[in-house]
Amino acid sequence: MRYTSPRSADEALGLLAEHGAGAKVLAGGTDLLVALRHRTVEPAVVVDIKRVDDFDEPVRVTDDAIVVGPTATMGRLAELEEVRRRHVALVEAALTVGSVAIRNRASLVGNSCNASPGADTAPVLLALGATVTIAGPAGERTVGLDDFFLGPRRTACGPDELVTALHLPRPRPGSGSAFQRITRRRGVDLGTVSIAAVLGPDDDVALGMGAVGPRPLVARTRLGDHESTAAAVEHLVAAATPIDDVRAGSDYRRAMLRVLARRALDTAARRRDEEAA
Amino acid sequence: MTTFAATGPSPDHEDPAVTVSTTVNGEHRTMSVPAHRTLLEALRDQLALTGSKTCCAEGECGACTVILDGHPVTSCLVLAVEAEGREVTTVEGLAPQPGELSDLQEEFLAAGAVQCGFCIPGQVVAAECLLRANPTPSTAEIREGMSGNLCRCASYERIVCAVHATAERRAGA
Question: Considering only A116-125, B5-14, B161-170, which range has the smallest mean pLDDT?
Fold first, then answer.
């Protein structure tokens, strides 16, 4: 294995084009180094993008969006005033990842690129309508995160491509968001079920769901289209297909999915009302 | 002769060694490390800094916690080559002099927080980082700040006491 540390996005893309599937991008390394240790990946070249100097790191804030650079860590993001103000649920999700030491390394963009079905930050990013910029030999393209996740550990980013930014659209005025997760223990655990709710000014809801399907999921509806909040929750969680595994049974996951969805919706509604007050 | 324990990403062959220049505990150090070796392996096997412990080797237990450019990280999840030009502090670098203890280490002993001792270097490094970022942490903040450091002896209560005691001692100093 050869280690490379390109100084520009072009140089990084050149390395990826040259080595294709033999190359692995290294951002925080909290997933990649585990995979190296277990030899589930055996790259010829590791492309460490932390010294690339033409990304927007950690973020670029505009009126319309927060653009997150590919190596911005969970810990750094959770400290940023503008992120805290606009995206409470994202901060909540980022602060559940691993531990302080993990959050000092783990990148938000990397969490999505690793495409674990249980990625802690994926449900909230889906619910917020995040998009990613993918750069490659043919130039740049923008992909909605819902189209980015293809399956377990599979994304729309090809081996010769690089996710160079993640865009978080500014929430509409009168929105509220919340994140909920169940784990067996507080620190350094994988989510048994995780949920993010984003509630808009017209009672439109986006519900992101993690660890209840082969990829992170999102469902949308309008609360007013249902007889009750419970009925809306039933509609939203219908897409989930949880499995039995070492962390929980599928029945338990299905039950907790509804509990967490309700809690997240209630918290998001409370925050929306508090902001309006 | 450099030897590496089989604790990290270990292909059947050794990759060619890369020279890595870094600052460890305030001293400039040069390591010669294959690209697949972790910072933890390099610290232990190249620099003989064996305070950082190898345990889970996948970022779950915190026994290998070191300070990288001012922030605590699990050194099992950092490639040694990534430390090029960076500043690393290990548990060996916390005491004022070799053979002495830091105030935090003294409080760990005074609180009886050290049982088998294996996790303690990582606990001490994590607690030091916590106190630098937040000199007067609440119990909840200590528990959260230390949640990445597992203690198989379950000495958590006394570890929390030791962190509180250090905070009070530093506030009074």
Answer: B5-14
Of B65, B77, B81, the CB nearest to A33: B77
Out of A2, A37, A104, the one facing B57 most closely (by C-beta) is A37
Place of tokens 């040069």: B30
Here the ipTM equals 0.93
Q: Tokens at residue B37, please? A: 């070796």
Identify any residues that bridge with A60 across adjacent strands, giving them in sequence order.
Answer: A67
Report CB contact under 8 Å: A105, B74: yes
Task: Round to whole Å and give the CA distance between A114 and A252.
Answer: 26
Q: Which residues of A touch B55 (CB under 8 A)?
A: none
DSSP 3-state of A198: strand
Domain ranges of chain A: 1-54, 176-276
Angle A243-A244-A245 (CA atoms, 0-180°, nearest 5)? 115
Give one word for B172, left, alpha or beta, with left for phi > 0 and alpha for psi -120 to 50: alpha
Name the minimum distance, in Å, from the CA of B57 to any CA of chain A.
Answer: 8
Residues of chain B with Cβ-Cβ distance to A104 below 8 Å are 68, 71-73
H helices present in chain B, as ranges: 39-41, 103-110, 120-133, 139-145, 156-172
A26–B contact, CB cutoff 8 A: yes
Alpha carbons B23 and A19: distance in angstroms, whole number: 32
Residue A195, min C-alpha distance to chain B (Å):
21
3-state SS, B147-164, equals: CCCCCCCCCHHHHHHHHH
Rounded to the nearest integer, the mean pLDDT of chain A is 96
Q: Does domain A1-54 have CATH number 2.60.40.10?
A: no
Phi/psi for A82 (5° steps) reads -70, -35
pLDDT tens profile A86-128: 999 999 999 999 999 999 999 999 999 999 999 999 999 999 9
Q: What is the CATH number of domain B17-93?
A: 3.10.20.30
Gap between the Cα atoms of A196 and A177, Å rounded:
7
Contact present, B35 and B17 (Cβ < 8 Å): no
**% pLDDT > 70, chain A:** 100
Looking at the domain covering B103-172, what would its CATH class be? mainly alpha
